[in-house]
Amino acid sequence: MIPFAALLTTLALAPMLAPRQWHRHCPKICVGFAGITIAYYLLALHSGWRILHSGRDYASFIIVVGGFFIVTAGIHLQVRGRATPAHNTLFLLVGALLGNVLGTVAASSLLIRPWIAVNRHRIAPFHIAFFIFAVSNIGGVLLPIGPPLLLGYLKGVPFWWVAQRCWLPWSITLGAVLIIFYLVDRFHSRRAASETPAGEKWQCAGGPNFIVMAAMLGCLVMLPAGWRELSIAVIATASFWFTPAEIRQRNEFSFAPLKEIAWIFLGIFATLIPVLDYMERHAADLGLHSDTQFYWTTGALSAVLDNAPAYLAFLSAALGLHGFSIENTADLSQFLARHAHLLVAISLGATCFGAFTYIGNGPNLLVKAIADHAGVKTPSFFGFILKFALPVLLPIFALVSFLFFR
How far is CA 22 from CA 32, 75, 233, 234, in A? Predict the structure, then answer.
C-alpha cells in the first residue's frame, strides 16, 4: 500500500509546493506509482485479473466523466440579473441540482464563469468557497454521474439507490449551506456599493447540447456495461465535432483539466487495489461498526485525500465486515438488502466532506484554477479550511450525524 500513500501525499503537497513541476511531470509520477503496484500484482501475486477489473472500472470512469465534461464545454451561459443575495442563493441551488444531473465536474466547469461574471463587481473569496461547497461537492450526492458515486455505480450500486435514501439528509445539508451563504452575502452586499450593476442579457449558446447530455444520461442509466461506455463516447465525440468551436473558445475550453484527472485517477485506480484488498480482509480490525463511525471516518479521509478512493476503501471495508467482496455483484446486492444504512453513511461522508479542502474532490481544484485565471482572489489552501470549511461545514455535518446516524 506504500505507492498509494506516496501518491496521495504527492497529490496533496506537489500542487502547492511546486505547481509548475507538478503539472509538467504529473503523468510520469502517476504512471510510476501505478507501475509499481501493477508489476507487484502481475509478477509477485500472479493476480492479473485484479488489474483487469481495475482497468475496466478506470476506463468506464474516465469515459463517463470525460463525456459529460466535453459536452458541457459546448454550452456557454450568460446570466442576466443583479447579483443580489437572493439571486446568488438561487444560482447555487440550481447549480447543486445541475451537479446531480451533469456531474460535479461538468456542472462546476459550466457554471463557475457565469458565477464570477454575475458577481464581478463584488466577487470575494467566500463566493468561491460556497460555490465549491454547493455545486462541486454537495451537488453530487444524489446521482452517480461523477466521482465518487460513479465508482459505486460501476461496482453495481443501482442508479437511483442513493437518491432514494439520501435525499432528506442532502436537503438539510444543502439548505443549511444556502441559508448561511445568504446571510453572509447579505452582510457583504450592504458593505458594497449601493448601485449594483445589472448583469448581461440571458444568452445560451450551444443549447442543443442539453439534449445531448440527456441522451448520455439515458445511456448511463439504461445500457449495460460496454454498450454504455461506447454510446457515451460516440455521443460526446459527435457533440465535439458538430458544436461550433467558438463556443468552446468563449468557455476557454482546454483538455488540460481532463488530462490531469485522467492521469491522477490512473494512479489512484492502480495503487488503490491493495488498499481495497486490505480493507476488505481486515475490516473487523479497523474498529468500524456503526453508521456514525463510517460517516466520520469516510468523511475525514475524503477531506484530506480524495473522496473517490475514500469511498471505495470504506465501501470495501463495510462489505468485508459482513463477509462480502466488492468485486462480487451478488455480494453487493445482499449487502444493500441487509446493511443499506452503512452505504448511506459512506455516500454522504464521501461526497459532502470532499468540500473540506481543495484536494478533497477534483472539481475543487478545477474551480480554483478557473477563478485564479480570471483574476479572482481565491482562499489559500489553509484559509479555505480555517475561514470557511470548518466554521460552516463542521456544525452542519455534526447536525446530520446527530439526526441520521445516532
Answer: 14, 30, 29, 32
Cβ-contact 177, 133 below 8 angstroms: yes
Better pLDDT: 231 or 154 = 231
Q: What is the DSSP letter of 202?
A: P
Residue type, 292: T
Quick check: 113 pLDDT over 80?
A: yes
Three-class SS state of 78? strand
Rg of the chain taking only CA atoms, in angstroms: 21
Label residue 162 exposed, middle or buried (CB < 10 Å: 0-12, 13-18, 19+). buried
Whether cis (ω within 30° of 0) applies to the bond prior to 208 is no
CA-wise closest residue to 353 among 58, 95, 140, 124: 140
Identify the sign of the CA torsion 256, 371, 269, 60.
Answer: negative
- Cβ-proximal residues to 221 (8 Å cutoff; 6+ apart), any chain: 159
d(CA 270, CA 183): 44
Tens digits of per-residue pLDDT, 186-206? 998 876 654 445 545 667 888
Q: Where are the domains of the chain?
A: 19-404
The residue type found at 320 is G
Report the percentage of the chain scoring pLDDT > 70. Answer: 96
Please report how many Cα atoms fall inside a 13 Å half-sphere around the Cα of residue 387, on the Cβ side: 15
φ, ψ dihedrals at 47, nearest 5° = -115, 60
* Contact yes or no for 60/225 (Cβ under 8 A): yes
